[in-house]
Amino acid sequence: EYQGKELLRRFEVPVPEGRVASTPEDVRTAAEGLGGKVVVKAQVLTGGRGKAGGIKKASSPDEAAEVASSILGMEIRGHKVGRVLVERAGNIASEYYLSFLLARSERNFFGMMSAKGGVDIEEVAATDPDAIARVHIDPLLGISDFHARELVFGAHIEEAARKEAMALIPRVFRAFVELDASLVEVNPLVLMSTGRVMALDAKV
Predict the structure, then answer these.
(1) Are 65 and 34 in contact (CB under 8 A)?
(2) Interval 15-67: pLDDT, tens
(3) Is 96 a catalytic residue?
(4) pTM for this predicted structure
(5) b/e per residue, 103-131, with b = 16+ CB within 10 A?
(6) Interval 126-137 mean pLDDT
(7) Which among 102, 103, 161, 199 has most CB atoms closer than 10 A?
(8) Dihedral, CA of residue 120, residue 121, residue 124 and residue 126, to nearest 10
(9) Are 18 and 35 in contact, with CB atoms under 8 Å apart?
(10) Would you say the C-alpha torsion 136, 142, 145, 151 has a positive or negative sign?
């Protein structure tokens, strides 16, 4: 996640301020530097971290160190946690899903967006397929304002987030193309109470 976010930051995609740590003491120091209220997230190459107890909030540096002690060393889907990402906590108003991937069979790029972020997209596809907006993008022509609008309005993204989301979508797409990625997934893409839209997680 932290590496994915570093990549997205290169393409001017807003991500929360955070620091990587491998000991509870380092987590305490990081939390102090980030203002005290933080989220501590296990850094492993697998999904389902939240459900496994690998993502926890802390309201002080001491609590952050305590939380880190329980996360560091735990195993999530066969992956042992050796590092955590400590991020400044904020108030989230809404969570969305955004991804770009390679559609090999159709020989083009495929974009997806949903107002139902924070959960497995496979689950959303199975239970509420209409909640996902989909666009095919010609690799030679690239993304246009039309594609961004189709994703945002097709996914029924609320008005407060639309302008920033439409500005952010081409940046995520540019990251996908220029990194020569097969998948760039932001889940969740969030609307903060401040009105900012940012990538709260990143899978590249």
Answers:
(1) no
(2) 999 999 999 999 999 999 999 999 999 999 988 898 899 999 999 999 999 99
(3) no
(4) 0.93
(5) eeeeeebbbbbbbbbbeebeebeeeeeeb
(6) 94
(7) 199
(8) -100
(9) no
(10) positive
**138, 177 contact by CB (below 8 A):** no
Q: Which of 87, 95, 164, 185 is catalytic?
A: 185
Active site residue 150: no
Both tokens of residue 85?
A: 């990402």
Q: Own/partner pairs for 145-152, CB < 8 Å, 24+ apart?
A: 147/111, 151/98, 151/111, 151/112, 151/113, 152/113
What is the 3 state secondary structure string of the chain? CHHHHHHHHHCCCCCCCEEEECCHHHHHHHHHHCCCCEEEEECCCCCCCCCCCCEEEECCHHHHHHHHHHHCCCEECCEECCCEEEEECCCEEEEEEEEEEEECCCCEEEEEEECCCCCCHHHHHHHCHHHEEEEEECCCCCCCHHHHHHHHHHCCCCHHHHHHHHHHHHHHHHHHHHCCCCEEEEEEEEEECCCCEEECCCEC
Query: By CB neighbour count within 10 A (0-12 exposed, 13-18 middle, 19+ buried), where does 155 fall?
Result: buried
Provide the residue type at 23 as one letter.
T
CA angle 3, 9, 14 (to 5 degrees): 120
